[in-house]
Structures are given as structure tokens and as C-alpha cells.
Amino acid sequence: MILNGNEGTVMAEPSRDTTLDRDALRECVRSTLTRLSRTGELPTLSATATAALGVARDPDADIEDLCRVIRTDVGISARILRVANSAAFARRTPAKTLAEAVLTVGLRKTCDLLVAASARRLFEGTSRNAEGLWNHALAVAIAAEELARLTRRAEPAVAFLPGLFHDVGRIAFLLADPISFEVIQNLVAEGEGQTSDLERGWYGFDHAEAGAILAEDWGLAGEQCDGIRWHHRPAQADAGRSLATILNAADSLAYTMGFGVSPQPPLDVSVAGLGLAAEDEAACMARIKDAFLRQNELLR
Amino acid sequence: MKKVLTIDDSKVVRSMVTRHLQPYGCEVVEATNGQEGVEAAKLHQPDLILLDVTMPVMDGKQALAAIRADAATKALPVIMLTAESGRELVVEIVKLGVNGYIVKPFQKESFEKEVSKILGAPSATPPAPAGPPLDRHTVLVVDGDEAILASARQALAGSMQVLTATGAEALERWTSARPGVVLVNVATAGDETIGKLRGLGPSAFVGMAARGDMGAHDAAKKAGCHTVLDSPCQPLEMLDGILVATAAVATVEDQVQTLLGTRDGCVVLNLPDPRSKVFGKVLPSLTKRLRALGAEGGTKLVVDMDNVTESNADVVKSVVAIVTEATTAGLRTAIAVSSASVVESLKQIAETQNRLFPSRDAAREGLK
Questions:
Q1: Percent of chain A with pLDDT strictly greater than 90
Q2: Interface contact A8-B54, CB threshold 8 A
Q3: Closest CA to A70 of A60, A56, A80
Q4: DSSP assignment letter at B271
Q5: Which of A38-42, A185-189, B90-94 is the most confident on average?
Q6: Where is B361: in which H helix or E strand?
Q7: pLDDT-based confidence at residue B255 (cuts at 50, 70, 90)
Q8: What are A271-295's pLDDT values in tens digits?
Q9: How, if at all, do strands B260-263 and B266-270 pair?
């Protein structure tokens, strides 16, 4: 197996054969993105978001653990209070303390929002189309959560973050190498190929692979990373097959709802794999739209 | 103008090379395998060859050997492009005589570091054409036959002026009109005229070549056409081709300009195929421009859909978005549409059902 370019044996599709292949690919993705990046570093989340992810992973964590993390960041503390006191949670009296706010929003959802707020800053680092890329990410995150709830194929609580980060590999490409990003976008627009294929032709791996590896670095669970890795080809997923199927459908729904990142949706995303009834799909989209408007406002 | 030959079987790599060479203001010639590359090197005598290693038909190593073995090409500078894992191979190839190598995927800095050793430093900005800006509302048709002219007039009615020229007259015509778009009949205009026209300024070049004549299509691309269309083609295909070519040389705002014209006090939007990939990229800037037109005091908009003959959800969605935006901007809007199926689909939609007219003239009349 070769990892990039077209010398030797080109790996047209990331392999899932062996741990050795996976490790070599991970090393290739890291070294390529690091080499291309002007800062010589991979994209990172804020310390608060990373700590929140640690709390989310810890089955013994409680509200006080999360409050300790939130208190280190005044801006985030204020944001969580604002979320808890928003109309969505319909409290009779406003939450005055951080603990009350976290209790209202829920431990897991608070973690999600902390990470999303940090991710938003990451997206804002891209000079072009930051708003469009962010809207797409948030729409897919909310759609994934909604579809997981509706289909019961995955735990809704674990679907939001993979949705948010499903295309974070594209952000990494854009941050590291804006010219190549633009060239690939133009080739797609000219009908010269699909984004993932063109990325593999240039980088040797696609944004889904790069996104999964970044998500691993940031501490998302294996199932979530697997879902991100295979969101364009759910049938090839392993532990995250259900999540990958949901992300694939969520990606498609986001395009249908006008939250796409290119003029046409990729050919390999579809909601058909979930077998939803038309009325369920329509009701689902209405809920997603409502949640998107609410959460996007709160994350500003 | 310096000339660079890129030899690579991958379209995406050739496109990356071409894009990264833009600051050098050079002409780029493409070849898709070693054998084609060796022939192109003899023919074009480029100032630099960028050579891939692994290719079908003839690989980079064999191509390099052939280039070095021929007196006509042996002195040409060659930079190899290699993947990370191909570095060892490069050591071997260096012995055959290369001037440098670049690891793929590359970014601007690493590319320029090697290429500048041969071509010199890139200009701070791409060489700007002399003279006033191009007229985005004018298309010059060079050596066009009746079918090309008819398609152009039908496709561009309302938003662009169509000028014609033949042979050497085309250069003079370009200089006086400075058209944003040049439509050229490849079979009769020839490489030389296209090359000279391209040297005059950054117009968008659309080549027209006989359907199925792959040789003519390739020749048009090599001569520098940004896109090549089958001739004859439908007006809508021509409009899409113009948008694709414009994207290669101009901003999205410039593309929007090619779609908008003014007639009888109405702003006319010449709608391309809303299902096309290029249109999706233009739509956000188009709606932004409509908002600006409203703010600038525009009052009437004709959405000319006469070229659109089929409808689907994308078509309806795009038209509704445009009408909604225009209405919000204070523009009274009429839609000119003659296709029965398109009319039928727009009749179902509240935003469009009362704005439909069977022709451009009727739409303008309807707004009076």
C-alpha cells in the first residue's frame, strides 16, 4: 500500500484490512497535513472543549466536574447560562448558577454545545465560506441527532458530535492548503469528478479519513470516529456503521434543506438507506430547521 | 510569455500545477502520459517541464530518458513530481538528470521554491492586461457558422451583445470591443489566432468543436480555451459553457454581470440551467446583486427562462429564491418562460404563478 500521490501502488480507497494499514494511513494523514500547514500543526479544539469531551467520555463524571471545566472560561459560562435560560428550555425562573444551567440543558448536551462553540471558532479560521461550512456542519449534527432518535439506529446523544465533525477534514484541507481546496471545488463544479475521489487523487486520502483521524486526536469515541470515516460509504464501516448510515442520510437532508456546501449534493449521500416514510422525513426536516435556528443563534 | 509543460496522467494534479503557475503568467501545455509529453516537449520547446513519475503508456523515468536522448530537448529543464513515498525513486532519477523535484501534494511555498529556480520569481500579481476593463456584456464570436451564431443569439438575448469577426479581423475587433467572452470555432479559427487572441487579455474563451471530434476538442484545450463545447449545441449548453469559462478568468461577481443586462428600463436576468453545477456557485452572488440593484433604485426585473426547457425541483427552488430576493429588494418581477413543462411546474408555486409570461417581450410589457 502506498499512501499518497501516484507512485507505486496507489491506495484509491482507504483500507480497513489491518491495524498496520490503519496506523500507516493515520501517520500519512498527519504528516501530510502537518507538512502542508503553514503553522506545522494540525487543527485543534480549545482546551475547554477538549476537557468537556473528557467529561463526556467519563461514565462517572457529574455536573460539578463539568462546571469546573466551564468555569475556566468566562465567555463559555455566560453562553451556557444563556442557553439554559432560552425559550427552548422554558424555565419558570431563570437559572442563576452554572450548576442549575447544566442541570437544565443536560450534561451531555452541555458538552456538545461547548465543543460546538469551540468548533465554530475553528470554522471561522477559514477565510472563505466559513458561514456556509459551519451551517452545513451544524445542520448535519442536528439532523444526525434527530435521525438517530427517529430510527433508533444509534444513541441520539452520540450522534451530534460526529455530525458536527463529519466534514472537519475539509476544514483541515482548507486551512492547510486553500489553493488546492479551490482547485478541487472548481473541478467538481466543472463535472470532473466527486470531491472525495479528487481528494484521494491529490492527497492520497479523502476528507472523511482526515476528519476521522482529527476526531480520534480530539478524543471522540471509536464508534463516532468510524462513523465520520465512512459517512460517504457506510457499508464499509465497522463499529460505526449505524452512525455512518445516519450521517450519510443527515448529509443528504442538509443539502435538501439548503445547507449544502456545494451546488449539488455528493452522489453518494442519500436518505433512502433509512427507509423513512415521506411524512416522517418532512416532520423530521421541520424539527431540524427549528433546532438549527435556535442552536445557531445560541452559538453565535 | 514563458511556457511550461506539465506531464501527468492525473487531471487533478495537472489542474493544481496550472493553478500554482498562475502567478508566473506563463502558458501551460498539458500532456497525459510520457509519450505524449516527449512529443509535446519537442513541439513546444517549453521553458520548464514538470514530470510525473508513474504514468501509463510511458512512465516519467522513460520519458526523461527520451527527453535527454534527443538533441532537440536534452537541455530543457525538468522538475519531477513525486509522492512522499517516491523519494527513493527520485534519487535514482536524479542520476538521469533532473533540475529538481517536488513532493505531492504540494502547497504554494514548496512549489514556488523549486519552480522559481527555473522561471525566476513569480510576479507579485498576475500580469494585468493593458487597457480598460473588459466588457462583460459583450461576446465576440470568431469564425462562427450560422448554427453557432443562432445558439449564441438565443442564449444571450437580453444580457449580452453578440459581435462577430472572422480570421485576422478578430484581433482588431477584440481590441476595439474588449469582450468578456470569446466564442471561437476551433475548426476554422486555428491555434495561432486563438493564441494571439488569448495574449490580448483575460477574456473567457469558449471553444466550439464538432460533436465527437476528440482531436478538435483536445486541440482547443491545448490552444487555451477554458472550456470546449460540442457544435452545434443548445443555447442553454452555451450559456453554461460561458459561465464555466468565465469562472476560469474572472470573479463570481463578473460571472453574475454576464447574466444581467438592461432592456427597456428592465433589468434582464438571463437564467442559465438552474440544474447546472456552475449555476449553484453563482446563485448566492446573484441574489446579493439583486439586493444591490433594489437598493440602487432598480424597479423591474425580467427573469428570462426562455432557454430553460425542462423543470425539476432545483429549477423551481432557484427561481423561487430569485423571485423572493428580488421582491424583497423592491423589484417588480416577471418571468419569461415558453416551455410548457416549466410553466406547469411554476404555476403550482405561489411565488411564481402570477408572474409568468410566454415571451421576453410579453414579460417586459407586463411590467409596464
A1: 29
A2: yes
A3: A80
A4: -
A5: A185-189
A6: helix B360-366
A7: confident
A8: 888 888 888 889 999 999 988 888 8
A9: antiparallel
CB contact under 8 A, A5 and B227: no
∠ CA(B107), CA(B111), CA(B113), 5° rounding?
125
Taking CB atoms and an 8 Å limit, are B277 and A183 in contact across chains?
A: no
Confidence band, pLDDT 50/70/90 cuts, at residue A143: very high
Amino acid, res. B91: V
Residue of A4, A35, A263 with shortest CB distance to B83: A4
Whether residue B231 contacts residue B209, with contact meaning beta carbons closer than 8 Å, is answered with yes
Best interface-test mutation with B: which of A1, A7, A21, A30 has the largest number of B CBs within 10 A?
A7
User: What pLDDT, on a 0 to 100 scale, did the predictor assign at position A128?
Assistant: 58
Gyration radius of chain A over CA positions: 19
Give pLDDT, residue A17: 47
pLDDT surpasses 50 at B155: yes
A–B interface: beta-carbon pairs under 8 A: 109
Residue A15's pLDDT band, with cuts at 50, 70 and 90, is very low
Residue by residue, what is the 3-state secondary structure of B200-245?
HCCCEEEEEEECCCHHHHHHHHHCCCCEEEEECCCHHHHHHHHHHH
Q: Region of A94 please: left (phi>0), alpha (psi -120 to 50) or beta.
A: beta
Alpha helices in A125-240 (DSSP H): 130-151, 156-165, 168-176, 178-189, 195-203, 207-218, 222-229
Asked if the Cβ–Cβ distance from B105 to A5 is below 8 Å, we say yes
Better pLDDT: B125 or B92: B92
**Is B15 in contact with A183 (Cβ distance < 8 A)?**
yes
Cell numbers for A189: 463544479
Nearest partner of A56 among A152, A158, A154, judged by Cα: A158
Interface of A with B (CB under 8 A): 2-8, 28, 31-32, 35-36, 176-177, 179-180, 182-184, 186-193, 198, 201-204, 262-264
Q: Please write the tens of the pLDDT for every residue from B302-324.
A: 888 887 888 887 788 888 888 88
Distance from the Cα of B310 to chain A's closest Cα (Å) equals 18
Measured distance CA(A96)–CA(A70) in Å, rounded? 15
The secondary structure of A199-221 as a DSSP string is: HHHHHSS-HHHHHHHHHHHHT--
Sort B81 into a burial class: Cβ within 10 Å, 0-12 / 13-18 / 19+: buried
**Contact across the interface for A179 and B15, Cβ inside 8 Å:** no
Order of strands across the sheet with B48-52?
B27-31, B3-7, B48-52, B78-83, B100-104
User: B20 to chain A: which residues are within 8 Å by CB?
Assistant: 179
Q: What is the DSSP string of B143-179?
A: S--HHHHHHHHHHHTTT-EEEEE-TTHHHHHHHHH-E
Cβ contacts of residue A188 below 8 Å, gap of 6+?
A: A194, A195, A198, A262, B277
Mutate to test the interface with A, among B107, B110, B112, B237 (most CBs of A within 10 A): B107
- Enumerate chain B positions whose Cβ falls within 8 A of a Cβ in A: 9-13, 15-16, 19-20, 52-55, 81-86, 89, 103-105, 107-108, 227, 244, 247, 276-281, 283
Instruction: Write out chain B residues lying below 8 Å of A7, CB-based.
Output: 53-54, 82-83, 85-86, 89
Q: Does the predicted model carry a pTM greater than 0.80?
A: no
Is the model's pLDDT at A13 over the cut of 50? Answer: no
A177 vs B contacts (CB less than 8 Å): 105, 107
Residues 6+ apart with CB under 8 A from A290: none
* Contact status, residue A40 vs residue A212, Cβ threshold 8 Å: no
